[in-house]
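Task card 7
Instruction: Convert sequence to structure tokens.
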Amino acid sequence: MYSLIWLPEEWITYSVMDMLYMKNNPDTYKNVREEVKYKYYVRLFNYLKRLDIESINNSTYTIGESYDLPNLIVRLDDLRLYFEGYERYEKCKVIKDTITMLYDQSVKQISDEKLLI
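Output:
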């Protein structure tokens, strides 16, 4: 079995970076803040887009125990809502498919564990 690893640490990194820039260079950063956020979120999305959902659904990937699934779902939905605000619906679909895959894998994993008992 393989662990599916995609942690929401990138969001933490963005939050820290945003806070530091706002504290240290508020006048300069305010002018480019939305552009920086958009570029950062596009990079997150591009990473997410590389996941082959079909192969994950048809394989032996599992969600690790240290995986904070509820937090990840919330973060992914935040990302989806962000792109929805820009009417980037093709990105929203990829994110929604990923959320669905995570739920499916989680349910599959729980049911497999119950079968072992």
